[in-house]
Design brief:
The chain is mostly beta strands. The protein has no helices and 22 strands.
């Protein structure tokens, strides 16, 4: 059984320079029915105006993943890291005992469109850590490609949680299948296009969760991109 979280039902925020949609309670948006899914605590779809961004601010004891859909994001943190990330690069930060960072759209003309994802760690008080992986050259076309996991093998970002994150870009008519093991949960977040999961149609911005073991069959009705979380 799928539980659907439609794009238009998400919480929202509009600060002028930032327009955001919240799949789960975040900031000023609070809905006790949508506090997260298993260890997945935040999926924010952010659109950051040109030459704007988040000033330096703190985090602790959270696994933070940034996935760029359009544009660029300049990152600086108190660990001494600095980088500009683009589509095809996943950024990860274990906030652990505490870290400060800033995120800024360096373009004068183009907005930045991104997903910011928070996953609750399975241990607190770990040393902060930063990692980014360029997966643009990997084969994500018409297949599920793992970006994040608890073991960090073969270029997969290693996080402090039994959680796996996959990305896929499907051509219209193409299908992928993910086998969900007994006792685990899956969340699908559509970032572009339209697809079906079984008999359910999902469009950009929609999310869906299930805790029913077995195959998840995902078919693109038009060219589509999505993320799939497999969570303990």
């Amino acid at each position: 059984m799928l539980n659907i979280r439609r794009s238009e039902d998400r919480g929202g925020a509009d600060f002028g320079w930032l327009k955001a949609k919240h799949s789960f309670s975040f900031g000023r948006y609070y809905d006790p029915k949508h506090m997260g899914f298993r260890s997945l605590r935040v999926i924010n779809e952010d659109r950051v105006a040109p030459n704007s961004g988040f000033p330096t601010h703190p985090h602790d004891n959270m696994e933070i993943i940034t996935y760029i859909l359009e544009g660029e994001l300049a990152h600086k943190d108190s660990m001494g890291n600095g980088a500009v990330i683009k589509p095809g690069v996943i950024q990860y930060m274990a906030a652990g005992t505490g870290v400060q960072h800033s995120e800024f759209n360096p373009s004068e003309t183009t907005k930045t469109h991104l997903l910011q994802i928070w996953i609750e760690p399975d241990k607190i008080g770990v040393p902060p850590r930063y990692q980014q992986v360029d997966f643009a050259h990997k084969h994500t076309k018409n297949r599920l490609h793992q970006l994040v996991g608890p073991d960090g093998t073969d270029g997969v970002v290693n996080i402090h949680q039994d959680a796996k994150l996959y990305a896929a870009k499907l051509d219209a008519g193409e299908t992928v299948t993910h086998e969900l093991a007994d006792g685990r949960g899956a969340w699908i977040q559509v970032t572009r296009g339209t697809l079906t999961v079984g008999d359910t149609t999902l469009s950009a911005g929609d999310g869906a969760s299930t805790e029913t073991p077995g195959p998840l069959t995902i078919t693109a009705q038009e060219d589509a991109e999505f993320l799939l979380f497999d969570l303990a």
